[in-house]
Amino acid sequence: MLLGEFPHTLDAKGRVFLPAKWREELAGEVVVTAGQERCLFVMTKEAFSRRAAQLEALSSDQKANRDYKRMFFSSASEESVDKTGRMSIPVALRRFAGLESKEVVLIGVADRAEIWDRGSWSSYRGSVEGEYAEITEELR
C-alpha cells in the first residue's frame, strides 16, 4: 500500500526518485498516466489493469465515459523504475501536470502514487483540508 507525502525534485532529464518506502511495491515496470486535478497517477501494471477493467465496463454510449477513457489510456506510458528507484516522466505528462518548476510532491493514495507540482499540491491540499470532515460525511 502506498502511503505518505514526499517532496522531491525532477532531474534535468525529467526523472524522479521514488520514496524508498515505495520501491519494493513499484519495482520494475509501472504505468504513468494523467490523473485528476492535473496530477499524474503512477500504478503497478496490476493496479493499472484493475482500473482498466473498471473503465472498460463503462458504457461507451455516454460521452463522459468516452472522454475519460480517451484521456486515461492515450496519456498512459509504461516506464521502468531503475535499481536506484528512479523513473522517467514523459514530456507530455510533465506538461499536463505543470511540472516545469521541477519541484514535485509524491503522495501515496493506497493503490497508486500521485505526482504533483509542489505549488499545485499545496494549493489543493489547503483548499481541501478545511472540508475534510464534511467530505467524510459524503463518502457514504
Helix-strand layout with pairing:
Layout (H helix, E strand, L loop, with lengths): L4 E5 L5 E3 L10 E7 L5 E5 H12 L6 H12 L2 E5 L4 E3 L2 H7 L5 E7 L2 E6 H12 L2 H7 L2
Antiparallel strand pairs: 1-7, 2-6, 3-4, 3-5, 4-8, 7-8
Characterise the protein shown here.
Helix content is 36%, strand content 29%. The chain has a single domain (5-138), classed as 3-Layer(aba) Sandwich (Chemotaxis protein chec). It contains 5 helices and 8 strands. It has helices at residues 45-56, 63-74, 91-97, 118-129, 132-138, and strands at residues 5-9, 15-17, 28-34, 40-44, 77-81, 86-88, 103-109, 112-117. It is of the alpha+beta class and 140 residues long. The model has no long low-confidence stretch (mean pLDDT 96).
